[in-house]
């Protein structure tokens, strides 16, 4: 019928409306009848497709729509096959058929939930002592209400049984395995997902579900390194019904009091011993909570945790509301997170980023927004603020100001006057530039003054630049800013440096020679987000900030450590420039010309690595250059023709 109507439609469009009056009566009746039948068919199809879910196929899931008691009863013969124990070598490329998922414009897997059935053995004893738990019902209902769900088994990429295995303690292991093997699409567990939170109880505390499950994926609580299949299984939290009415407070700005907090009770004795050892080593940085034994009469122990007689409200002490709401607060949150993790594995090109998984949509600290908590998209305005640290090199300073003023995206120029014994030049002597120019005087001569979060910095982008960097062209600076706009969570600079491990000395070494690798960029001229000024000033670990000021060296290395530790990413070196050359600088006024400079730089790296407790610097083997930088192309047609030499 559809094919005929399409042909008729084509004839109508080719001849035009004038054809209708000349049609014979029997033809008119034929086409009118045909059109009416097609129209009625389309209406019927639309009504069926968009009718409320209450009349959808019986595969539609939810206790609000179907009763457990109405589910068909399935008897399991004793001789029914049992799945294999579980393949520990399973990975997504060996035990999961990704081709079943296919391509779809939304890059979203489709999940099918098996119809509810009641499985019993040959004498009528159920395979579970509790049947379908409220928690598993909530989980399946959340899936059926989500965009992942499909009631068309032929479109499904992932299959979720309606057999509740959340709590192994309520299951008959053999019979549950037999019930799984009877599922019509089981196929040795391929593309099947099981949810289990309690794989066992005290004193054994199994780390994975004991039910034989072939190749099925397991979303489980309590995995160990022996039972978790990396990149295949999904580790999930153990949900407690007591958390349903929990209202966590908003976390207040500023540092957290505890670096690590453990509030779980009834922990295995070996885990408890390990936590106690960490507590001894780290002191107040770790808060180790347990059950309370000294509560007053009538106080609910489930809502309290104690440490050496001190009582804490639980779970309010955790202070991690966004993570709680997003991933832990309900069976729905746990289920949707699990499916999204699997979805990211199947469609990696459309996967969520690290920032999307781990950072709230918007976090405000004081008056600045962190680039880690924002979509990493380039801000269109309002340019950058150049912060020039100076002491008394007036002539060189004025040349730097003049050169920077030529950069189109310069929004403001801030001079940090670090000389307390000498006043800055009079206003009339400063270069006349189009952008606003502001001078701030510091109270002490400290290198860390360059990274202070001055109120005058209103742009997100900051260009830290020394008063002797007169060799950078306006094209180089503008290009550096354009690169930063694409990567606002990175340090973007010019000369690159490298850290190396000295095997003979058994410590880290600072390297400035020609290499194919970069792990740091000098902040004598570098772009970064102003958020890192706050972190450097208020959140720098240990005594690094004071150590830098005392030694008058390595503030740039400290900033590289800080950014790499926060982001887990390497800096970006732009343009080929390798060195900063200052013709007017001498050994008297040039810090970098001190003979002990390189030795101190290596000492800095080892000092900072010790304070951070790790080596956060990341090594890369690339840099960013303009697209047409090396092309044999007319210079006047290039966006950045004046890119400096080495």
From TrEMBL:
<keyword id="KW-0328">Glycosyltransferase</keyword>
<comment type="subunit">
    <text>Part of the heparan sulfate polymerase, a dimeric complex composed of EXT1 and EXT2. Could also form homooligomeric complexes. Interacts with NDST1. Interacts with GALNT5.</text>
</comment>
<keyword id="KW-1133">Transmembrane helix</keyword>
<dbReference type="InterPro" id="IPR015338">
    <property type="entry name" value="GT64_dom"/>
</dbReference>
<dbReference type="InterPro" id="IPR029044">
    <property type="entry name" value="Nucleotide-diphossugar_trans"/>
</dbReference>
<keyword id="KW-0479">Metal-binding</keyword>
<keyword id="KW-0464">Manganese</keyword>
<feature type="coiled-coil region">
    <location>
        <begin position="261"/>
        <end position="288"/>
    </location>
</feature>
<dbReference type="GO" id="GO:0005794">
    <property type="term" value="C:Golgi apparatus"/>
</dbReference>
<comment type="similarity">
    <text>Belongs to the glycosyltransferase 47 family.</text>
</comment>
<dbReference type="GO" id="GO:0046872">
    <property type="term" value="F:metal ion binding"/>
</dbReference>
<dbReference type="InterPro" id="IPR004263">
    <property type="entry name" value="Exostosin"/>
</dbReference>
<keyword id="KW-0472">Membrane</keyword>
<keyword id="KW-0808">Transferase</keyword>
<keyword id="KW-1015">Disulfide bond</keyword>
<dbReference type="GO" id="GO:0015012">
    <property type="term" value="P:heparan sulfate proteoglycan biosynthetic process"/>
</dbReference>
<dbReference type="GO" id="GO:0050508">
    <property type="term" value="F:glucuronosyl-N-acetylglucosaminyl-proteoglycan 4-alpha-N-acetylglucosaminyltransferase activity"/>
</dbReference>
<comment type="function">
    <text>Glycosyltransferase forming with EXT1 the heterodimeric heparan sulfate polymerase which catalyzes the elongation of the heparan sulfate glycan backbone. Glycan backbone extension consists in the alternating transfer of (1-&gt;4)-beta-D-GlcA and (1-&gt;4)-alpha-D-GlcNAc residues from their respective UDP-sugar donors.</text>
</comment>
<dbReference type="GO" id="GO:0005789">
    <property type="term" value="C:endoplasmic reticulum membrane"/>
</dbReference>
<dbReference type="Pfam" id="PF03016">
    <property type="entry name" value="Exostosin_GT47"/>
</dbReference>
<feature type="domain" description="Glycosyl transferase 64">
    <location>
        <begin position="384"/>
        <end position="629"/>
    </location>
</feature>
<dbReference type="Pfam" id="PF09258">
    <property type="entry name" value="Glyco_transf_64"/>
</dbReference>
<dbReference type="InterPro" id="IPR040911">
    <property type="entry name" value="Exostosin_GT47"/>
</dbReference>
<comment type="pathway">
    <text>Protein modification; protein glycosylation.</text>
</comment>
<keyword id="KW-0812">Transmembrane</keyword>
<keyword id="KW-0325">Glycoprotein</keyword>
<dbReference type="GO" id="GO:0015020">
    <property type="term" value="F:glucuronosyltransferase activity"/>
</dbReference>
<keyword id="KW-0735">Signal-anchor</keyword>
<keyword id="KW-0175">Coiled coil</keyword>
<feature type="transmembrane region" description="Helical">
    <location>
        <begin position="29"/>
        <end position="51"/>
    </location>
</feature>
<keyword id="KW-0256">Endoplasmic reticulum</keyword>
<keyword id="KW-0333">Golgi apparatus</keyword>
<protein>
    <recommendedName>
        <fullName>Exostosin-2</fullName>
        <ecNumber>2.4.1.224</ecNumber>
    </recommendedName>
</protein>
<feature type="domain" description="Exostosin GT47">
    <location>
        <begin position="106"/>
        <end position="319"/>
    </location>
</feature>
